[in-house]
Specification:
- By secondary structure, the chain is of the alpha+beta class.
- The chain has one domain: CBS-domain, CATH 3.10.580.
- 23% of the residues lie in helices and 21% in strands.
- The strands form three sheets. Strands 3-8-7-6 form a four-stranded mixed β-sheet. A two-stranded antiparallel sheet has the order 1-2. A two-stranded antiparallel ribbon has the order 4-5.
- The longest helix has 11 residues.
């Protein structure tokens, strides 16, 4: 009888105490290796730091996004504005309320992204391409929806 290989933990030397379990025999086509680009919400419009919150709210409602990436004129990611930030004065700008954003490369495995977001206490991460331009947003709910779809459950159009 052949025994299953137990993945060995690889210590993380960063500031947070999460472990990454490496599986040298893992299936590259398996769920653990699927990129975050499969689960993210695509972003077609970002906002500048000077944009008023009333305009950010309209963008979030129109695109059904969990937040809005804030970028500098050279498309450099500065931060992210969340729905809860919109309760500030509507005359406030995105720069006044934005949070520091976690930027994940689009090829990051979904499991790794979930572990990082969980250990850092982050609900929303920006997904960037090779040129570090924002291509999407990954919310914790996006990961849950992706898992449900992968297991064969039907997700209604209203909830996406």
């Amino acid at each position: 009888m052949r025994r299953e290989a137990i993945p060995t933990p690889t210590e993380n030397k960063s500031s947070k105490p999460y472990r990454i379990y490496t599986d040298p025999y893992g299936d590259p086509e398996g769920r653990a290796h699927r990129p975050v680009s499969d689960a993210m919400s695509p972003v077609t419009t970002c906002v500048g730091p000077e944009v008023r919150l009333s305009d950010v709210r309209q963008l979030l409602e129109r695109q059904h996004l969990p937040g809005a990436p804030v970028v500098a004129p050279g498309d450099q990611l500065l931060g992210v504005v969340l729905w809860r930030d919109l309760f500030a004065s509507p005359l406030a700008s995105a720069a006044d309320v934005m949070h520091r954003a976690l930027a994940l490369p689009a090829w990051t495995p979904i499991g790794k992204a979930a572990a990082i977001m969980s250990s850092e206490g982050i609900d929303l991460a920006a997904v960037v391409d090779f040129e570090r331009r924002v291509v999407g947003l990954l919310a914790a709910l996006d990961i849950v929806r992706w898992l449900a779809r992968e297991d064969g459950y039907v997700i209604s159009a209203e909830s996406t």
